Amino acid sequence: MRAIISGASGLIGEALAARLRGEGFDVLRLVRRAPAHPDEAFWDPAAGEVDRTALEGADAVVHLAGAGIGDRPWTESYRREIRDSRIGGTRLLAEALAGLDSPPPVLVSGSAIGFYGDTGAAEATESAPRGTGFLADLVADWEAAAAPAAAAGIRVVHPRTGIVLSRRGGILGKTLPLFRAGAGGRLGDGRQWMSWITLRDEVAALGHLIASDLSGPVNLTAPSPVTNAGYTRELARVLRRPAVLPVPAPLLKLVLRGFAAEGPLISQRVLPARLLESGFAFADPDLPAALRAVLGR
After folding, report:
1. Average pLDDT over residues 21-43
2. Taking the domains of the chain in order of start, what are their residue ranges?
3. Which CATH number fits domain 2-295: 3.40.50.720, 3.30.450.20, 3.50.50.60, 3.40.50.10490?
4. Tens of pLDDT along 219-273?
5. Does the pLDDT of residue 135 top 80, yes or no?
6. What is the mean pLDDT of residues 8-37?
7. Torsion-angle region of residue 187: left (phi > 0), alpha (psi -120 to 50) or beta?
8. E strands within 110-213?
9. What pLDDT, on a 0 to 100 scale, did the predictor assign at position 19?
10. Which of 292, 275, 264, 170 is nearest to 220 (CA)?
11. 39 contact partners, CB below 8 Å, separation of at least 6
12. CB-based contact 235:179 (threshold 8 Å)
């Protein structure tokens, strides 16, 4: 079996590649430079180039590439980069797969729970309507860009991923030094809901999507979202450190610019209805045990 992954050097992509190799897949990574290893193939989304020969005959394609949502403040130029990297790359890959003599049976094309916008305290499953804001518009267009693959008969799945918990990156990895130093705290008033998933459940769920018959949007979040204040208390408890230094919302907005209003300050209470209905079993369904497992406690 052969799987192709874009974004394979990222937090999720690297872990997924390792898991699939362990399951017997030959993994081919799409890279934006001259390939240096037999398990690499070239593509350049900005230039509209991809090695179509390397795509022929794959058993699955997992598309995870794109500029980081929270890596930099949302200037106008970075908003364009976020959109272009996701929509342009997805469209390029979907059109290339659709034109193959031997296309893959499944394309798992990355997405995000930003589709739902700010849900407040209301629970959102895959049947919830599209929200408002930059992220909601981005995700809708991002998913739509995979339409050529679906039109060609390829099963297309959109894993709408929440906050991925890992020591090696994401919100936990970036803030862990502060919490370990006793300088952590809630963000804003802490009442906003966080929909999270551990990295090991994320990659297990992606593997499940490859093997299942699911198509369309599937929420990749744990079944027990928490408020930011609850997350902060639990992380502090697991680390046995105080976390009494809240970060005021105005400061977040000043530093992060547009991202704060749709990132750490937004409330998203998202549930993985379709994933659970399909029989997926979470290794880390609740936050206390999840944090202990992630942090080795």
Report:
1. 96
2. 2-295
3. 3.40.50.720
4. 999 999 999 999 999 999 999 999 988 887 775 665 555 565 567 788 999 999 9
5. yes
6. 97
7. beta
8. 111-112, 123-124, 155-161, 163-165, 193-194, 196-198
9. 98
10. 275
11. 26, 27, 28, 29
12. yes
Q: Left (φ > 0), alpha (ψ -120 to 50) or beta: where does 190 sit? A: left
> CA-CA distance, 207 to 215, in Å (whole number)?
14
Report the distance separating Cα 221 and Cα 241, nearest Å.
Answer: 27
CA 247/CA 229 separation, integer angstroms: 11
What's the mean pLDDT in 87-109?
98
The pair of three-digit structure tokens given for residue 269, joined into one six-digit string: 């209470």
Residue 210 has pLDDT above 70, yes or no: yes
pLDDT at 129 exceeding the cut of 70: yes
**What percent of the chain clears pLDDT 70, i.e. is strictly above it?**
96
Q: 114: which DSSP letter?
A: G
Q: Which residue has the tokens 């977040």?
A: 252
CA 106 – CA 118 distance, rounded (Å) = 31
Nearest alpha-carbon partner for 160 in 218, 222, 83, 235: 218
Reduced to 3 states (helix: H, G, I; strand: E, B; else coil), residue 109 is: strand
Per-residue DSSP letter, 88: I
Contact by Cβ (8 Å): 223, 197: no
How far are the Cα atoms of 14, 56, 268 from residue 152, in angstroms, in the given order?
29, 14, 34
CA distance 266 to 200: 25
The pLDDT value recorded for residue 170 is 87
pTM: 0.95
Cβ(288)–Cβ(223) below 8 Å: no
pLDDT exceeds cutoff 90 at 121: yes
Would you call 7 helix, strand, or coil by DSSP? coil
CA distances from 99 to 6, 109, 144 (A): 18, 17, 18
Q: Tokens 């309507």 map to which residue?
A: 129
